[in-house]
């Protein structure tokens, strides 16, 4: 494009701009009145609610949907913002007094469509509560306090008795430990004695049969069983003998005690 053509284009644009400005700002008063009158007649014939208001409401609803990034249901979102979940009853229990009381307690009076007096119990409910209290709490306040004090006193006595029992047992703890250690030592000694006795019997059998005979040999087992039988018999006789000696000693002690008692009684008679 040549320089001349650019100059002509620029000039034509400038002239057009001047014409527009002059027609808007330098027009006559009559022309302005005509324009204003025509605009007024247009607005007077238009509806009171322009169409773009409806479009704006729809756009606002869509905008709110887009703003909700939580993907929660409407009911859950209402709960999140501390509002009533449902605008209308969805289930039968939504119309019950119990559910409405819950709504009142959580979301306030704005969440229920009832007067505040609906939460007060009916006369039948009051009578039921009185009957329940009469059965569940039959005692007066003074009687209940007396029962509580008696219960506390009984518990304190039981605790005191338990502590005394524990103290007594703790005092005997050393004796019990010594007795246990004695029984353990006796058991270990008996086991050691049994092992020595068995080793002695094995040596005796080997002396009789020869050291080349295995302990798993049937002949060795038979001789060993016979030896053990004789050993048990000897032990039984020894225990019986010890038992008889203890019995005789106990009888001798009792006879001595009876003799001392008889002597003392005869001495008392002589004194009298």
UniProtKB/TrEMBL annotation:
Q: Where is the composition biased (Polar residues)?
A: 255-272
Q: Does the keyword Repeat apply?
A: no
Extract the InterPro entries matched here: Ribosomal_mL64, Ribosomal_mL64_sf
Highest taxon, organism lineage: Eukaryota
- Cited Pfam families: CR6_interact
Assigned keywords, A-Z: Cell cycle, Coiled coil, Mitochondrion, Nucleus, Ribonucleoprotein, Ribosomal protein
Q: Where's it found, cell-wise?
A: Mitochondrion; Nucleus
- Region (Disordered) residue spans: 249-272
The record's comment on protein family reads: Belongs to the mitochondrion-specific ribosomal protein mL64 family.
This molecule's function is given as: Acts as a negative regulator of G1 to S cell cycle phase progression by inhibiting cyclin-dependent kinases. Inhibitory effects are additive with GADD45 proteins but also occur in the absence of GADD45 proteins. Acts as a repressor of the orphan nuclear receptor NR4A1 by inhibiting AB domain-mediated transcriptional activity. May be involved in the hormone-mediated regulation of NR4A1 transcriptional activity. May play a role in mitochondrial protein synthesis.
Q: What is this protein called?
A: Large ribosomal subunit protein mL64
Give the organism the record lists: Polistes dominula (European paper wasp)
């Amino acid at each position: 494009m040549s320089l001349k053509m650019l100059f002509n284009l620029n000039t034509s644009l400038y002239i057009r701009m001047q014409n527009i400005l002059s027609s808007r700002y330098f027009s006559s008063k009559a022309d302005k009145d005509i324009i204003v009158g025509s605009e007024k007649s247009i607005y007077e014939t238009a509806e009171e609610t322009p169409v773009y208001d409806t479009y704006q409401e729809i756009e606002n609803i869509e905008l709110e949907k887009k703003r909700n990034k939580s993907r929660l249901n409407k009911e859950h979102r209402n709960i999140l913002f501390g509002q009533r979940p449902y605008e209308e009853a969805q289930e039968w229990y939504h119309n019950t007094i119990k559910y409405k009381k819950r709504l009142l307690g959580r979301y306030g009076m704005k969440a229920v469509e009832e007067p505040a007096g609906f939460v007060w119990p009916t006369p039948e409910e009051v009578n039921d509560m009185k009957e329940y209290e009469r059965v569940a709490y039959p005692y007066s306040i003074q009687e209940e306090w007396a029962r509580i004090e008696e219960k506390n006193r009984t518990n304190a006595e039981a605790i005191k008795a338990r502590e005394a029992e524990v103290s007594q047992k703790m005092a005997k703890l050393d004796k019990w430990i010594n007795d246990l250690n004695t029984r353990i030592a006796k058991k270990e000694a008996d086991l050691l004695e049994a092992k020595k006795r068995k080793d002695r019997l094995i040596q005796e059998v080997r002396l009789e049969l020869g050291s080349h005979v295995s302990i798993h040999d049937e002949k060795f087992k038979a001789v060993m069983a016979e030896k053990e039988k004789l050993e048990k018999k000897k032990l039984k006789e020894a225990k019986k003998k010890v038992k008889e000696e203890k019995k005789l000693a106990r009888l001798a002690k009792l006879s001595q005690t009876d003799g001392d008692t008889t002597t003392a009684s005869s001495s008392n008679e002589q004194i009298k």
